[in-house]
Amino acid sequence: PLLWYEIRSGWATLDSFRSMPAPEPWLRRLNLLSQTLLSDPGTRSAWDGPALPAWQWILYPTLVVIALGANLRRGGAARMAGLIFALLALYLLFSPLKIEDRHFVALVPLAALLVTLAARDLRRRRPAAWIAAALAAVIYLGSAVDWNLAAARQLRATGGVGLWSNAIDKVAAYLQRNSRGRKVKVLDWGLNDSLLVLTGGQVDSAEIFQGATAGHSGTGRPWKEEIVPGGVYVLHSPETVVFPEAGDAFRRVLAEMQLPFRRTQFRQKAKGWYAEVVEVLPPP
C-alpha cells in the first residue's frame, strides 16, 4: 500500500509541475537563500516568528560571496567546491520549477565548506586574521543558537501555527475513531501525508484537490457525484488553506444539495481554526 501511495503521489507531483504558474522573480529567491543560510522563512512561519534582522540576512550572505570568490581563485578541491555551489545556486535561482526556501537548504553545507576553506587560507597567508575569522564564527554560532532556541520555545508555546499546527493530531485521532471503513477525501495540501503517518495508514484517505475546479474535483468527477451520503471530507480552515478552489467548491455544492451533514472543527492552540471534518450523513 505504501509503494502504491508513493507512485500516486509521484504522478500528482508531476501533474502539479505541469500546471505550475510562472516562476517567482529570481530576486525573491535570492532573498530566500540569504535567509536560509541562518533561519529560513518556512521554519519561522511554523511558530509565526519575526523577520530576520537586516544585518543578519546581509552579513552572512556577504561572507559566503567573499568566500566563494576566494575559493574560485584557488585551484583543486577549493575551486571545485566553489563551482558546485555556484552552479547549484544558479539552478535554484533561475529554475522554471517552483522553488521555496527549503530547497536552498542543500546549499547550506556547501556554504559552510566554502567559508571554512577561505578562512583557513586567509589564516595561512595572514596569521593575525584568525581573530576576525573566529569573531565571525562566534557571531554566526550565537545567532544560529538563538534562533533555534527561540523556535523550540515558541513551538512548545504555540503548538505550531497554520500548516504546522499540532492540531493535526486531533484530526488524525478523530478520523481514526470515526471513519473506519470509509474513504476520507482530503481537499487541501498538507493533510494527507500527516494523516497517513499519524494513523499508521489506518485511515483510508485520498487527495481530491489537485486540479479541482468549481465544477469538478481533482478526480474529474462532478462535485455532485463526489459528495455522497456517508462520505468524509477533510478541509483546512480558510485562514490555513493552501489551495482554496476545492474547499470553496465543496462547500458551495454541499449547501446546494441540502444534504444533512456533521461538521467538526479543530482549533489551534495558539489562535484560530486549523481544519474541519465534514461527514455527510447517510439517509435515516
Summarize, please.
The chain is an alpha/beta fold and 284 residues long. Helices cover 55% and strands 9% of the residues.
Which terms summarize this structure?
single chain; 284 residues; alpha/beta; 5 strands; 55% helix; elongated
Number of strands: 5
The SSE string, one letter per element, is HHHHHHHHEHEHEHEE
Give the strand line-up of the largest sheet: 2-1-3-5-4
Can you give the mean pLDDT?
90
What is the secondary structure topology, with strand pairs?
Elements: H1 2-18, H2 26-36, H3 41-45, H4 54-73, H5 76-94, H6 108-125, H7 130-158, H8 168-178, E1 184-186, H9 192-198, E2 205-207, H10 223-226, E3 232-236, H11 244-257, E4 261-267, E5 273-280
Parallel strand pairs: 1-2, 1-3
Antiparallel strand pairs: 3-5, 4-5
Helix pairs in contact: 2-4, 4-5, 4-6, 5-6
Describe the structure.
The protein contains eleven helices and five strands, in the order ααααααααβαβαβαββ. A hairpin with a 5-residue loop joins strand 4 (261-267) and strand 5 (273-280). With 284 residues, the protein is of the alpha/beta class. Helix 2 (26-36) packs across helix 4, helix 4 packs across helix 5 (76-94) and helix 5 (76-94) runs antiparallel to helix 6 (108-125). The relative contact order is 0.10.
